[in-house]
Amino acid sequence: MTENQQDTTGAVVAPKPTDAVSAPKPSANYQTIDPAKTHAVAEFKHNFPLTSCRVSPTGRYVVAGAQDLDIHVWDLHTTEKRTLKGHTSWVRSFDFSADGSQLYSACWGGDIKFWNMADADPHPTTTIQAHTGSARWVRLSPEETRLATCGNDLLVKVWNVADGSLLQTFSGHEHHPYAVDFHPNGKHLVSQDLMGHIKIWSIESGKQEREIVASIMTGYDKKFAADMGGARDLQFSPDGKGFASAGISNVVNSFAGVQDPIIVLFDWKTGKETAQLKPEKTFQGIAWGVRYHPNGFLVGAGASRSGKGELWFHKPGEKEFFHTLKLSTAARGLDLLPDGQHLIVAHSDGAIRKYRMTAEAMEL
Amino acid sequence: MQRNQGCNPLDHQMARRQFLAGTASGALGLGVLNSSATAEKLQSQHRRILQVYLQGGVSQLESWDPKPGTEFGGPFRAIPTSVPGIHISELLPQTAKRMHLLSIVRSINLKTNDHTQGRLFMEKGRRAGEYPYIGSIASKYLAPKNSELPGYIHISTRGLPDATSAFLGAQHGQLKFEGVKPPSNLAAPKGLNQSADARRNQFRLQLNKQFGLGRSKSLTESFDASFQQAEKLMARKAFFEKAPAEQDLARYGKHDFGRNCLLARTLLENGATCVKVTHHGYDSHAENFNFHLEQLGECDTPFSMLLDDLHERGMLDSTLVMIYSEFGRTPKINVRYGRDHWGTAWSIALGGCGIQPGAVIGKTNEKGTAVADREVDAGHLFHTTLQALGIDPKSDHDIAGRSIPIGDPTAESIKELLA
Fold first, then answer.
1. Cβ distance B42 to B68 under 8 Å?
2. End-to-end CA distance of chain B, in Å?
3. Best exposed site among A112, B324, B395, B418 by fewest CB in 10 Å?
């Protein structure tokens, strides 16, 4: 593992390539966020390919799912790695409480588990058999009292965080829902399925309020007679005026990974698409992550069919990404650190890599 | 196009009439299967085959040989089945409840990762050469002479017809249906009454007779076979015209594969001998897990309903069921969450006529990367299937006086799989 370095203010500087004793000296614009200058600053390795990641709101922990049954936790302050055991299938989605003390995880087996991250050796404090078939997504409500999940039983469910009891069940998806999120107002849920059907549910009425059909995010593979699509990540903008969905488009031969990654932005009020963002045509694959940066720009991450990765950056109102950073391995998960300067990517080579969105530090 | 006239160089390499081997499990091994007594006995028993072909190569790790929690195990869990001790993937929950009707072979090594080679090996029981598919063999030896349906019917939603009958003759070739759509031009032309149609057919036969004088029989027999098959289907066109019962659709599913399985049931109930139903979409070099969720999720219920219906109708004793592919998929998961072609250590399931139910034959190693016990290939499976149907795979086809071994003479049946 190559450790990141932090000074007493918490600022992260470039990693030591070896055990060199000299510390890098920050450059003048080292604190200025500039996505075009994004570069890797730290790496944390696991011995299985990673599948997903999440950063705790305090910025202390990075958790990752992998092609094994465990949750892998890195403490960014100490670089210590812990392994949380308890799931019986791959873990595919996480969320944290605002203080970072509680972790919620969802696995392909359909279970949701709660973990107390303050424990020295966390074990599940609550386990819910949430869905028949995979539990694909878990999100904590803004007021932190409810969890939303979706799964292969075609249901979206809302759970009481206090006792793990089921509060609401929303049915209506005819194909597997891939992701669900709370609107920041806490009154609505949005879920998107394999066929690009985005359902907006009213928590108050317990019913579907409206539907957006993002047909560009699904495709039928004629050769293999199967559908391909789904949201691989879904997030609301902080102001709740829109949301972003990452996935695929232009299905040609999905069984060989021949389709285009896409990030689609939606206007919450009208339900209309406001942008369809695609990388260069040579990059065929899947968009696995999307995040709204507090400064207003959007970050996306994806994996190509040849196993490479890319990070994409988009400014509001523009039709294309303004910057692309090529990565040597596939990006399968994306999250931002609360400092706004760093992002985390879960890679297919088993690495969590930390990227800094500023100019590189100057070496002495 | 060169027509297969029942003779090719490879045939001449075959030992003639190398039979007289002992027979087992009631297989009718009289050396040459065309002897009338043997043929009549087989045909009177009217054993059948239902082939459910998962095209592209279903993953053994996501179906019959799950390895959860291992390096290449993937995200899915293993679930118990109706047979104590046998676990299969959680993607087949309905099939798991019917495991007592099936057996699994977990130790297949085809030594090929090629779609076509794997498919032909699985269908013909031989790695190379122009030999008939098992469906064509069933058509020739198991179909009653007075059968009202073609002997080998394949229901699929895409793909071209295969050349399946080799030297057995075109009448035993596969007739392909595009899903539940009736074959093109099934109905007689408007204005053509039954009498006129009969006269037209008589005239055609006369012309055929004259044309065939001094020519090889095989030049005209395929045309005759086509007319005969069309006649049979025209007589049974209600199969296609009558909408399935709602309660059946509710059980099987309203998707294409559910409807295709329902048609397969109807055909088997009405005297078809070999019915093959193809479910496409398993060649998952990318997104293997999501695709297997979707595809096996669609396959599991109609396949289980078919098993139930055959069982409840008392047909399973006389119908061999096989659910298979051309190979499995690599244990190693590639960077696209895909699994690639893998003929080295994979599985199929069989049940029904002549098959010992509730058995697991062979095993793979802990990670699923190699066969650990009882390695078999498609030659063994071919012998086993024929034996189970009562056809001695060590006997010969008699093709115009030439003897051609039905099964690969170097292969054997998997005896512990036979009932």
1. no
2. 44
3. B418
Residue B260 pLDDT > 80, yes or no? yes
Look up residue A83 and give its two tokens: 């392994």
Q: How far is CA A85 from the centre of its chain?
A: 21
H helix or E strand, kind and range, residue B342? strand B341-342
Contact criterion met (CB below 8 Å) for A325 and A302: no
List the strands of the sheet with A323-327, edge to edge: A285-292, A298-304, A309-314, A323-327
Q: From CA B171, how far away is CA B227, in angstroms rounded? A: 10
How far apart are the C-alpha atoms of A154 and A110, rounded to whole Å? 12
At residue B159, does pLDDT exceed 50?
yes
Strands B346-352, A233-236: pairing kind: unpaired
What stretch of H or E contains B360?
A: strand B360-361
Strands B175-178 and B152-156: parallel
Q: Which residue in B334, B39, B353 sits closest to B168, CA to CA? A: B39
> Facing residues of B321 across strands?
B50, B351
**A interface residues, B as partner, C-beta within 8 Å:** 48-49, 67-69, 88-90, 92, 107-109, 133-134, 152, 176, 194, 221, 223-228, 230, 254-257, 285, 303, 305-307, 329-330, 348
CA angle B81, B83, B87 (to 5 degrees): 40
**B235: closest CA of chain A, how far (Å):** 31
Chain-centre distance for alpha carbon A234: 8
Q: What is the ipTM of this complex?
A: 0.90
- C-alpha span between A81 and A305 (Å, rounded): 30
| Closest to B218 in 3D by CA, of B162, B168, B161 | B168
What does DSSP assign to residue B309?
Answer: H
Q: What would the two tokens of residue A94 be?
A: 């996480």
Collect all residues of chain B within an 8 Å Cβ-Cβ radius of residue A176: 293-294
pLDDT tens, position by position, B8-26: 333 333 333 333 333 334 4
**Angle of helix B256-269 relative to helix B288-312, nearest 10 degrees?**
30
Q: What share of chain A is helix, strand, coil (3-state, %, to 5)?
A: 0, 50, 45
What spatial distance separates the first Cα and last Cα of chain A, rounded to whole Å?
A: 23
Helix and strand totals (H; E) in chain B: 12, 16
Asked if residue A175 lies in contact with residue A139, where contact means CB atoms within 8 angstroms, the answer is no
Q: Using CA atoms, how far apart are residues A144 and A159, in angstroms rounded to an integer?
A: 11
pTM, two decimal places: 0.88
CB B28 within 8 A of CB B142: no
Q: How many residues does chain B have?
A: 419
- Torsional class of B55: left (φ above 0), alpha (ψ -120 to 50), beta (otherwise): beta
